[in-house]
Give the backbone structure.
Amino acid sequence: MAHLITFLGKGGVGCTTVAIAAAKRLAKNGDRVLLATQDPSPAFGLLLGRSVGVEPEEIAPNFWAVQFDTPFLLAKGWEEIKEMEAKYLRFSTLKNIYGQELGTFPGFESALGLYEIRNYNASQKFDVIVYDGTADLALISALGVPENTNWYIRRFRELILESDLGKALSPFIQPITAAIFNVSWSLENFAEQPLNETKTLLEEGIDAVSDPKRAIAYLVTNNDPIAIATAKYLWGSAQLAGVNVGGVFWNREGADRQLTAEFSPLSYTELPQSKDLEAIAAALPNIREVGDIPKPLQIDTNNRQVKVFLPGFDKKQVKLTQYGTEITIEAGDRRRNIILPPPLTGQPVKGAKFQDNYLILSL
């Protein structure tokens, strides 16, 4: 399994520069590194010192690079969708639609990039994948896709099975699916069988994102108040999405001690204000060594307590609701659904407080 490392920060603070420097440092240390960028412009090639293509190219010992091209990835992914359709349906409906004809909606580029990264990870050719993504909420949303999609599949399947419509259609599902699909399903497994591969993929993604030794993000900022506020907001949003944040790279020497304290307990590293990638790489710590960082979610069944780490937010920005066995937490424009494990399943929230950047729930 490759270690996925990415960066979050306001545009212009140097996320791409830090990503390239980090990849160089890791490759020099002996890791097989793939540097993948979502930036389609020539700027990436200028910073790297050479242009790269849509497939990984070895540009130095232990160092490969790839520049994602959204139309290329979309066409590639569309062919996989058509193969899946042919597997499950007796009559193809998508064979005359080509990936080159399709457009993308905002944020979809990050999802395509992360799916491609998953394929590179499965190849086992790399020890580390450094991802120079959009560095913003779109990247966080893409990292949260496995958990959110898994919730939609689970919740809507339950609704279909419990609804009057589902019960009314139940006698007709098996003969209809036998005629249309390559297999015959009952209502109970109609919404599940075609999604088994997808569910496995989603569960793999959830496990990867929640493990800091498999996926981790770092904040990049400077002394600009807007950059600091953006980094703090992205930090809290990442935690709510279940993304671990390992530290702060301060892209300026002589960082303000009072400002760096706002990111406590994260460690911070001052980077030289230089265009010399080697100098920046030399200043970086070993970013694969994950220290003692706050966990986004902690569930203590013995003390009947749930703790959600929400830096960058205050209690006025946090909304809590409970539906059946699940708790939903909203902060800013982010939302997270928490499934309570036994013996907390179905227990109502008896108390909630916001303390030291944690939302603490008592059950």
About this structure: The mean pLDDT is 80. Residues 70-88 form the longest helix (19 residues). The chain has two domains: 1-293, 297-362.
